[in-house]
């Protein structure tokens, strides 16, 4: 077993600790209570595609930086328009659903357990304001929460991961980035952080070529692995 000496954990939030699709679905259904699953899913996909596309355009320098709040408002207007809703108050309420995301069942207890051994940092593409709402709604426990807004970029830009390095005062290899998104972990690896993939029903699973330090079925499994003297590697799964 390979040793894994780390001094702090850095957590992705959206998808890793909170169920982002579930929260957005709830917001879409509040927008139009007549929608069934078949009507909701295309609107959810419209939202997700807009956020992904516009974050990529910002990363590629095709548009100026905008915080996640502004992108959420854009997505809400698109979704409301597609649903035939033009009430500004309803659109504003839909945009705020991006801050009301439920935690996964193991999130709160898992963070509490891990916080007994390590400093915990949240590192999210959500804006500072959105991250405050997310943390409060999902009852997330941090020693510090960091927003990509402070880097005026989005993950996987290395400047976002550098926030965790700067704030922690630790070398990158002493930080363990935890995420349900392989693309996020690859970005952290490029800056030298150690990596732990946590499986979630949503997210971006590893490919056969990915080599992360830890692979966990959830936060309890992650905590179990980190309770070993130096942490233990597991081989990639599928």
Overview of this protein structure:
- The chain is of the alpha/beta class and 238 residues long.
- The protein contains nine helices and six strands; from the N terminus they run E-H-H-H-H-H-E-H-E-H-E-H-E-E-H.
- It has a six-stranded parallel β-sheet with strand order 3-2-1-4-5-6, with helices on both faces.
- Helix 8 (182-190) links the parallel strand 4 and strand 5 (194-198).
- Helix 2 runs antiparallel to helix 3.
- It starts with 7 loop residues before the first strand and ends in a 12-residue tail after the last helix.
- Residues 232-238 have low confidence and may be disordered.
Strand content: 5-15%
- Largest sheet report: 6 strands, parallel
Mean pLDDT: 94
Shape: globular
Secondary-structure-based class equals alpha/beta
Q: Sketch the topology as an H/E string, one letter per element.
A: EHHHHHEHEHEHEEH
Helix content: 40-55%
Number of strands: 6
Roughly how many Å apart are the termini? Answer: 20 Å
What's the arrangement of strands in the largest beta sheet? 3-2-1-4-5-6
Number of helices: 9
Quaternary structure of the protein: single chain
Rg, alpha carbons: 18 Å
Low-pLDDT stretches are: 232-238
Q: Which keywords apply here?
A:
six-stranded parallel sheet, 9 helices, alpha/beta, 238 residues, 11% strand, single chain, disordered C terminus
């Amino acid at each position: 077993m390979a040793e894994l000496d780390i001094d702090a954990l850095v957590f992705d939030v959206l998808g890793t600790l909170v169920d982002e699709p579930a929260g957005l679905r709830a917001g879409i259904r509040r927008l139009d209570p007549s929608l069934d699953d078949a009507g909701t899913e295309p609107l959810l996909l419209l939202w997700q595609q807009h956020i992904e596309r516009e974050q990529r355009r910002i990363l590629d320098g095709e548009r100026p930086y905008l915080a996640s709040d502004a992108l959420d408002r854009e997505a809400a207007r698109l979704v409301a328009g597609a649903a035939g809703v033009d009430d500004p108050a309803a659109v504003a309420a839909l945009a705020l659903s991006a801050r009301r995301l439920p935690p996964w069942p193991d999130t709160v207890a898992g963070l509490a357990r891990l916080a007994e051994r390590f400093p915990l940092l949240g590192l999210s593409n959500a804006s500072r304001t959105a991250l405050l709402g997310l943390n409060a709604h999902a009852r997330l426990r941090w020693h510090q929460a960091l927003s990509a807004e402070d880097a005026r970029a989005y993950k996987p830009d290395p400047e976002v991961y550098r926030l965790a390095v700067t704030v922690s005062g630790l070398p990158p290899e002493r930080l363990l980035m935890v995420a349900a998104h392989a693309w996020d972990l690859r970005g952290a690896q490029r800056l030298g952080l150690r990596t732990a993939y946590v499986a979630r029903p949503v997210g971006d699973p590893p490919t056969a070529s990915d080599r992360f330090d830890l692979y966990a079925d959830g936060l309890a499994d992650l905590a179990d692995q980190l309770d070993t003297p130096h942490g233990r590697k597991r081989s990639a799964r599928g």
